[in-house]
Amino acid sequence: MTPARNGRHDREHIVGVALDLLDRYGLPDLTMRRLAAELEVQPSALYWHFASKQDLLAAVADRILERIPAPQGDLLATARRVRDALLAYRDGAEVVLSSAALRPGPSRAHEALRAALGESAPGGADIAATAVLQFILGHTSLVQQRMHGESHGAAADAPDQDAAVFDAGILMLTRGAGAADPIAARG
Amino acid sequence: MTPARNGRHDREHIVGVALDLLDRYGLPDLTMRRLAAELEVQPSALYWHFASKQDLLAAVADRILERIPAPQGDLLATARRVRDALLAYRDGAEVVLSSAALRPGPSRAHEALRAALGESAPGGADIAATAVLQFILGHTSLVQQRMHGESHGAAADAPDQDAAVFDAGILMLTRGAGAADPIAARG
DNA sequence: ACCTGAACACCGTTCAAGT
DNA sequence: ACCTGAACACCGTTCAAGT
């Protein structure tokens, strides 16, 4: 049932190792050469499985997005689940943001948000879901980049502040979309 | 009145050349070595003026943000001005997003949005302005990255679609913040 | 089908030394 | 004060050749 696997590594396995490297060392240190070394293979071997580093990162982004559960609940709860999927791996938001730009169609994240928005958004739920996703990606990218910027330097007074900004943003977007008030619902 | 300038290049001049290089070739091709070549100088010479490439990019980001006019008008108009400042240079949003993460205090963009928001936002105008800025950075980064992704390949059917998503996002955020309805106001 | 070996054309950064 | 020259430790990608 599993697809042909004659070589030592297939795409799925390589993406898994890449994701582990990403989480441990961050995006700047996720290089084709380090990934190859981790797989005990020459760097050129990766180019049989992936056309380019961008292609590899797109597959990594898809894997990150798979963590998003099936659509369920209101917008705030759904948005938090998308954010948490991005936060689950170091630099997850930046990877998804970078490769989301190349994709034309809707992603798993977009679909979840669209389902939570219903039909009542101004200009269509599709457009509203896109806007919400863009906020989540911008917010989470900023948060994650600040994380290793202050890893051994500045003050780390932001854990609660970030959550407050996120909730405020989603709340504002929710009210503007005319959806049910999430204040009454539990997060 | 101008500060001491014995050498061939000072920080202001270098940032200007870097910004020109950014706009012509994009962020991936804005390297210290190319910048040095453009200035007809050795790469190591740049490290007398800037501590690192990140330091240089932070100065470039500040220069991009200077294009934002003084606070004036409602949130939609202000948000559009911030977006347009980012769009004025290739990859402008990504540069600002990357170096905004390291800055703790509020930027020129944040101040403009905060002024437009008034005092009526839930959780405070400061938090609301941060959320709006994060949406703008996420949105514009996505738009700009898609631009040179499709420069010689896929369909470019997105000029109006992007503006619709942006306006919808700001509109939703505006209503949620309880500010004056921007539909009645002209953009 | 899958990988090696070697090369090409680059990177950011440091540091002694020059002027 | 400002820059050169040379080096260090890397990059992504291609491609003939092996098995």
TrEMBL record, chains A, B:
Signal peptide: none annotated. It holds the Pfam family TetR_N. Keywords: DNA-binding, Transcription, Transcription regulation. Residues 31-50 bind DNA. The keyword tRNA-binding does not apply. Residues 8-68 form the HTH tetR-type domain. InterPro entries: Homeodomain-like_sf (IPR009057), HTH-type_TetR-like_transc_reg (IPR050109), HTH_TetR (IPR001647), Tet_transcr_reg_TetR-rel_C_sf (IPR036271). PROSITE patterns: HTH_TETR_2. This is TetR family transcriptional regulator. It comes from Microbacterium capsulatum.
